[in-house]
TrEMBL record:
This is Tryptophan--tRNA ligase. Keywords: Aminoacyl-tRNA synthetase, ATP-binding, Cytoplasm, Ligase, Nucleotide-binding, Protein biosynthesis. Homodimer. It comes from Streptomyces lonarensis. PROSITE patterns: AA_TRNA_LIGASE_I. The gene is trpS.
Length: 330
């Protein structure tokens, strides 16, 4: 394929994806299938950097894959696989570990945040080298671009640095990837606290729209979203973060531009906006949930599909790893 290649991954630990995962990431993955040679991984190796129950992890990995399929990834148009099914990721990661400085890894802010939260005694070495495994995940596919959120930018910089280091030490081997800041990716905020982003770990249950929640739960959460004491439906992140978040969600799912929505809701109260946002969200999540249930109802077929994805991924991963190992002197 002469299309630019992209690689992206999502952790299986989330259970249900939330609206931010879809509108900020997964929806762009679906679009990139049409223009790019796209590799998408459920990154279960990354998941065990914190303790996981084995049966729970296996189920969560299937559920993540089912949700990616339910959101529109098509195994005929992209390579969808589970990271642990491609052992070359860890083989290449060792080389990358040896090319990454201890201090360099120590500067990763996501590690500092995560380890501070659980304390040094409960921080695994795996959590420390997580960004280096991510370096291998990306470089092993010779990815040209990596669609990422702002929170991952530092890891992409590390990936570029390590790729350049390898190339200058051993000769040109790896494509140096660029971050792909996707058009149309929306940042979604917590419904109860629209100053923070909607997040599995930081949001309260009422602030988080899980894509697999029953429609009634979703509608109720949206109708209870925090707004402000005014009445005017207008997009203004500074003074109306709650209303702006609802307009963003509506626009992203309905395709109606925000100014048009402002016009539509002129002279109407927040309740009318919330009711319509609830309808728009439930209108999308209902068929999504049915598709996910369909994939989850046949785990053997899902496993076969993921095995085919891993086979496709391994063709590239094995070739890159063989070349890198040869260059290193193995
Ligand atoms: P969480 O923050 O809930 O743990 P992850 O960190 O697992 O979510 O993110 C998975 C993907 O979803 C990433 O690409 C991330 O940038 C994106 N994402 C997560 N939360 C949001 C949000 N509130 N708005 C937009 N994108 C988001
Ligand atoms: Na996160």
């Amino acid at each position: 394929s002469d299309r630019p290649r992209v690689l992206s991954g999502i952790q299986p630990t989330a259970g249900s994806f939330h609206l931010g995962n879809y509108l900020g990431a997964v929806r762009q993955w679906v679009a990139l299938q049409e223009t790019h040679d796209a590799f998408y991984a459920v990154v279960d190796l990354h998941a065990i950097t914190v303790p996981q129950d084995p049966a729970g992890l296996r189920e969560a990995t299937r559920l993540a894959a089912a949700q990616l399929l339910g959101a529109g990834l098509d195994p005929e148009r992209c390579t969808l696989f589970v990271q642990s099914h491609v052992p070359e990721h860890t083989q290449l990661a060792w080389v990358m570990n040896c090319l990454t400085g201890f201090g360099e890894a120590g500067r990763m802010t996501q590690f500092k945040d995560k380890s501070a939260k659980v304390g040094a005694e409960h921080t695994s070495v795996g959590l420390f080298t997580y960004p280096v495994l991510q370096v291998a995940d990306i470089l092993i596919y010779q990815a040209d671009e990596v669609p990422v959120g702002e929170d991952q930018r530092q890891h992409i910089e590390l990936t570029r640095d390590v790729a350049e280091r390898f190339n200058s030490r051993y000769g040109k081997t790896f494509t140096v990837p660029a971050p792909h800041i996707t058009k149309g990716a929306a940042k979604i905020y917590d419904l109860q606290d629209p100053q923070i982003k909607m997040s599995k770990s930081a949001s309260s249950p009422k602030g988080l729209v899980n894509l697999l929640d029953p429609p009634k739960t979703t509608a109720k959460k949206i109708r209870s979203a925090v707004t402000d004491t005014g009445t005017e439906v207008r997009f203004d992140r500074e003074t109306k973060p709650g209303v702006s978040n609802l307009l963003t969600i509506h626009s992203a799912l309905s395709g109606i531009a925000v100014p048009e929505l402002e016009e539509k809701f002129a002279g109407r109260l927040y309740g009318a906006l919330k009711a319509e946002v609830a309808d728009v969200v439930v209108g999308w999540t209902t068929p999504f949930r049915e598709r996910v249930e369909h994939y989850m109802s046949d785990p053997a077929e899902l496993d076969r599909l993921l095995a085919r994805g891993a086979e496709k991924a391994r063709v590239v991963a094995a070739a890159t790893t063989a070349e890198a190992y040869d260059k290193v002197g193995f």
